[in-house]
Each structure stands twice: as C-alpha cells, then as structure tokens.
Amino acid sequence: MFNLQLESESINTAIDALVDKGWYFWHNAIPTSLCDALYFELQQRQQDGELQQAGIGRGQEHQLNQRIRRDAIHWLERQTPAQAQYLDLMQQLQLELNRQLFLGLFEYEAHFALYSPGDFYKKHRDSFRGAANRMVTSVTYLNPTWQADWGGELVLYNEEDTQELTRLMPQCGALALFMSEQLPHEVLPTRQPRASIAGWFRCNTSTHDLVNPPK
C-alpha cells in the first residue's frame, strides 16, 4: 500500500470546526481503496468468528448490556497493512490536534464496529465529565454504499442534551469527529449490516494512585 497523507487544509478545517461547534463531518477523508481493504478485513473477521460483543464501561466496570449497545467489535492493533495505514493517518491527525489545540493527546485507540440489522447504541457520552481521558472521538464509515432508508445514523446532541444537532448517515470514507466529553450521541437502529471504525484520541490522566483505565 502507498504512504497516504491527510490533506493539511482539510485537517485545519476539521480542527476549526471542533473548536467552533464541537464536531465535524469530513466527507471523503479516507481513500476508497483503504476503506475497501478494511471493509473486506472486517467481513473476514466476522466469518472467522473473531468479533466480540461490545460492552459498556471500562476497566473493572466493563459489562455487556444489549439494552444499551448491540454492536460487535475487534480492536485495531496493526495486525494488517490496512490497519497500520489507517492508524498512521490517525497519527497525523493526532499530531495536528496537539500542535494546534495543545490537548496533550498521547494515544489513539480504535476498533472495528459491526452493527447487524436491528443493532443500535443508545445515547451516551464517550468520556466522564471532569475525568476525561478520551478527548476526541472519531468514526470512519466503511460500507461501499448506504441508502437513507437503511437507518444507522449517528445522532449528535448539544452539550446540555436538550437539542439534536445533526444526523450523520454512513458514507464510505467519511470521518465524523466530535469532542468526547462534550457531546452526547447515539447510533440509531440499522436495517442493514453497518461497518465502521470507532476511535478515540486520548490523554493520560494517570496519577500516582490511579492508573488510566485500559480500553
């Protein structure tokens, strides 16, 4: 695979939007060829039984609750060239987020997320208020095609959780970015298999008596 780069102008636009409104939907951020490779890998891992039911909470508080969340996941750890290339792109974005916003991001973690028909993820925040380690959330969409009546939209709400801000339809190569602590969000029930990569740019909140919880 080639050494891909995110467009600098587009990165700046995304960062400006994060500052101004807390979210940004970046159309065609990830090349189609890379999305196709990642989509094929996710399908293969599903066929091989390598996906795990996703839970809620982190560390010792992690638990399964299908009334809240029903997707299946597999963590990205550079096992394949496609994974490595995607993580390299996110590292570029991490460096720019740190350079421009001084967020102190030290890690990016991500997993495949497959929503089967009927699956959803109820409204939640990705980070606890006042104890944030996940700073910026990313979602990259992998399905080659998606129709409006298939559902599965990502819905973002304002910080006070009183108003819907936007509904983002899965589009191949699109990258949704939003502030993890700031915006509640949910994934609406899908009518078709919905493939994506969910990720988080993290800062280190460990102290001498509290270790930053694992993924």
Automatic annotation (TrEMBL):
Task: Work out whether the entry's keyword set contains Metal-binding.
Answer: yes
Classification via Pfam families: 2OG-FeII_Oxy_3 (PF13640)
Q: Which GO terms describe its biological process?
A: cellular response to hypoxia
Its needed co-factors are:
L-ascorbate
Q: Name one GO molecular function term.
A: ferrous iron binding
Q: Does the entry feature the keyword Amino-acid biosynthesis, yes or no?
A: no
Every copy of the Fe2OG dioxygenase domain together lies at 101-203
Per the record, the coiled-coil ranges are: none
Q: Which InterPro entries match?
A: HIF_prolyl_hydroxylases (IPR051559), Oxoglu/Fe-dep_dioxygenase_dom (IPR005123), Pro_4_hyd_alph (IPR006620), Pro_4_hyd_alph_FE2OG_OXY (IPR044862)
Q: Which superkingdom does the taxonomy of this entry point to? A: Bacteria
Question: Which keywords are on file for this protein?
Answer: Dioxygenase, Iron, Metal-binding, Oxidoreductase, Vitamin C
* Protein name listed in UniProt: 2OG-Fe(II) oxygenase
